[in-house]
């Protein structure tokens, strides 16, 4: 967490919503409270060292037992005052419905957390329609919405922000080249899109590289910043500060 914030600060990022996956660790014997104390402590230290505000969105994973997912949601709500702002779900889309986790997301939403599932990268429109049934506040990936005009229109009508990860999409075969990437079509349809690294260690990338790819597809730093601000799960005070920053939208690669 601290290292990630330091890397982000190098590209002049000021706000992050970090992901961690507690369920796997709990199943290996780690205590819930140890995890949900450690990550917020790391976020606080990241701000002290690097000046980057870090909020946290723990991820469930497709395939985890629903009861564990629901307990994770309850713990996440309990740590809301420590910087937990949302609940997500990752893992393989194909063959893994999000249906068993509806109650977990209801617990999260009722407790004041946002809903930020992954969907629409390694599987197509059907996966995204199901994700939409969770009433997400934002969707991570979502790029395959371009394959279904009705789905695309629904995303636009709801004002949902998509967290787009160009390198991840290219490495996983969503697009074969930058010229084939769906990002321009998404934006032409009116979808707000942030630019992200996904898993920078796995994909050997950083924020500067992702913004370079996005720029090649017509996305300016200001475009991405404003989309990020629209989709952020931060409190009103943090949002006001981010809105008033004099260099908001400046190229992070500079």
Task: Explain how this protein is built.
By secondary structure, the chain is of the alpha/beta class. The protein has 2 domains: 1-116, 3-Layer(aba) Sandwich (Rossmann fold); 138-246, no CATH class. The chain is 47% helix and 12% strand. The protein has 13 helices and 9 strands. It has helices spanning 2-10, 22-27, 32-50, 66-78, 102-110, 125-132, 149-158, 166-171, 183-188, 200-203, 207-216, 221-231, 236-244; strands spanning 15-18, 53-56, 59-61, 86-90, 114-115, 118-119, 139-141, 161-164, 192-195. The strands form 3 sheets. A 4-stranded parallel sheet has the order 6-7-8-9. A 3-stranded parallel sheet has the order 3-4-5. A two-stranded parallel sheet has the order 1-2. α5 (102-110) links the parallel β4 (86-90) and β5 (114-115). α1 (2-10) runs parallel beside α3 (32-50) and α4 runs parallel beside α5. It is globular and about 45 Å long. The model has no long low-confidence stretch (mean pLDDT 94).
Instruction: Return residue spans where pLDDT drops below 50 for at least 5 consecutive residues.
Output: none
**Radius of gyration (Å):** 17 Å
Tally of contiguous helical segments: 13
Describe the global form. Answer: globular
Give the helix proportion (percent range): 40-55%
CATH topology (level 3) name of the largest domain:
Rossmann fold
CATH class descriptor name of the largest domain: Alpha Beta
The CA-CA distance between the termini, in Å, is: 23 Å
Architecture of the largest domain, according to CATH? 3-Layer(aba) Sandwich
Count every beta strand, where a strand is a DSSP E run of 2 or more residues.
9
Give the ordered list of helices and strands.
HEHHEEHEHEEHEHEHHEHHHH
Average pLDDT rating: 94
What count of structural domains? 2
What proportion of the residues form beta strands (DSSP E)? 5-15%
Which sequence of strands runs across the widest sheet? 6-7-8-9
Taking the sheet with the most strands, its summary is: 4 strands, parallel
Structural class: alpha/beta
């Amino acid at each position: 967490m601290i290292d990630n914030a330091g890397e982000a600060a190098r590209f002049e990022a000021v706000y992050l919503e970090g992901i961690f996956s507690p369920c796997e660790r709990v199943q290996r014997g780690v205590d819930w409270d140890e995890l949900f104390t450690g990550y917020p402590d790391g976020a606080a230290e990241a701000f002290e060292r690097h000046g980057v505000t870090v909020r946290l969105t723990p991820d469930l994973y497709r395939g985890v037992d629903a009861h564990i997912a629901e307990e994770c949601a309850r713990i996440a709500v309990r740590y809301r005052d420590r910087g937990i702002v949302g609940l997500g779900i990752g893992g393989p889309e194909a063959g893994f419905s999000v249906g068993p986790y509806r109650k977990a997301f209801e617990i999260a939403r009722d407790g004041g957390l946002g809903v930020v599932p992954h969907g629409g990268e390694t599987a197509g429109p059907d996966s995204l329609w199901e994700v939409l049934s969770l009433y997400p506040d934002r969707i991570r990936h979502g790029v395959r919405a371009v394959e279904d005009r009705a789905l695309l229109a629904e995303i636009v009508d709801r004002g949902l922000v998509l967290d787009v990860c160009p390198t991840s999409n290219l490495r996983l075969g969503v697009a074969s080249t930058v010229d084939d990437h769906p990002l321009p079509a998404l934006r032409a349809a009116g979808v707000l899109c942030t630019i992200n690294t996904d898993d920078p260690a796995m994909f050997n990338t950083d924020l500067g590289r992702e913004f370079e790819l996005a720029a090649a597809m017509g996305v300016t730093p200001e475009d991405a910043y404003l989309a990020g601000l629209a989709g952020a799960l931060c409190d009103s005070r943090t949002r006001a500060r981010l809105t008033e920053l004099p260099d908001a939208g400046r190229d992070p690669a500079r």
